[in-house]
Amino acid sequence: MMHMTFYWGKSATILFDGWRTSTWLGYLLSLVALLLAAAFYQYLEALRVRVKLIAEGSAKPASSIPPPASSDPRTPLLAPAFAGRWPPRVAVAAMFGVNSGLGYLLMLSIMSFNGGVFIAVVVGLALGYLAFRSSDGEDLVVVDNPCACA
C-alpha cells in the first residue's frame, strides 16, 4: 500500500519495488544512501557551476564576434551565440541533465512519504551545500534562471 501522508517506520518502498526496507539495518543503510546521494547532488551542482565559469572565462568575448547581417536571409541566427564554444556548452548541458535526473530521483524518494527518508534527503542536501557550495560565492554569481523550479 502506498502512503499518502507522512509516516514513521522501517518499512518503506523507495523509488521502485526492489528497494523495500523491512529491517532496521536495511532502513538505516537506505537512509545513509539517500543522504549521500543528496550530498552528491550538491557536489555535482558546484562542479557544474565551476565548469560553467571556466567555460565562460575561456570563451571569446562577444565583441570579437561580428554581428550578423540582418539583411541577408542566409545568415544563421544562432551562429554568433555558439561560435567556438560547443564542447564546454555540451559538457555543462550534460552535467545539468545528470544533476536534474538525480534531483528528480531524490524528489521521488521523498514521495515515499516516509519521515526518515524526508529527513535524510534534506539533511544530505544541507550537508552537501555546507561542504561543497557555501565557502565560495560562485552560486551567487551564476544564476541561470531566477525561477525556483529551474
Number of strands: 2
Radius of gyration: 21 Å
Q: In whole angstroms, how far apart are the ends? A: 32 Å
Main beta sheet: 2 strands, antiparallel
Helix content: 55-70%
Structural class: mainly alpha
pLDDT < 50 runs, ≥5 residues: none
| Average pLDDT, all residues | 81
How many helices? Answer: 5
Strand fraction: under 5%
Q: Overall 3D geometry?
A: elongated
In N-to-C order, the SSE pattern is EEHHHHH
What spatial order of strands do you see in the largest sheet? Answer: 1-2
Keywords: Copper, Copper transport, Ion transport, Membrane, Transmembrane, Transmembrane helix, Transport
Membrane topology: Multi-pass membrane protein
GO molecular function: copper ion transmembrane transporter activity
Transmembrane segments: 24-44, 90-107, 113-132
Structure description:
The chain has 150 residues and is an all-alpha fold. The protein has a domain at 12-59 and 82-137. The chain contains five helices and two strands. Helix 1 (24-58) packs antiparallel against helix 3 (86-110) and helix 1 (24-58) runs parallel beside helix 4. The chain starts with 11 loop residues before the first strand and ends in a 9-residue tail after the last helix. GO terms for molecular function: copper ion transmembrane transporter activity. It comes from Zea mays (Maize).
